[in-house]
Amino acid sequence: MIFKIIALTLMAAFYACYYIKLLGQKKKGIKTTQIGHGKTGFVKWVECTMMVSTVLAVVVELVSIALGTTMLPDAVRWIGAGAALLGVIVFITAVITMQDSWRAGVPDSDKTELVTHGIFRISRNPAFLGFDLLYIGILLMFFNWVLFAVSAFAVLMFHLQIVNGEEDFLLEAFGEEYLEYRKTVCRYLGRRSGRR
What we know:
68% of the residues lie in helices and 0% in strands. It contains six helices and no strands.
């Protein structure tokens, strides 16, 4: 029962942050959800499939939590709880740090600023890292093979979104500034000595 409470509380905090930010930006006239807008081909497919996979992941997570499925010992489940908590903290920190530059999907026309301070000094994609950690944490708490497949697919789609959409957009929008940033901060976690 404790793992159900932890998982549901962390998911509620995570998605509350997402939707509160979305509604706050909407009130300012900012179109936060940019998924699939103005894109074509593979990039559009990736963004739309990513969106579907995130919705599917939440559904399968909630079913797994409700059923209390698990194939792992409690020690691993506690590691999962820690990973999920870390994911929520990382995601909320990323959303707050991005301020009004936060978007879901690559903007097709909005001009935002390149955020390189705060948590972005150690991760170029902390919001995606937060999603990944939450998914991995829930998976470890309520492991079953369907949840594993759905979670792995969602994480893969996040990665494809970054490498096939977001990084190209940032390079085009910010040029040398982004290249310099990319040389010093890793895609998911860590800093480099300045070499690519």
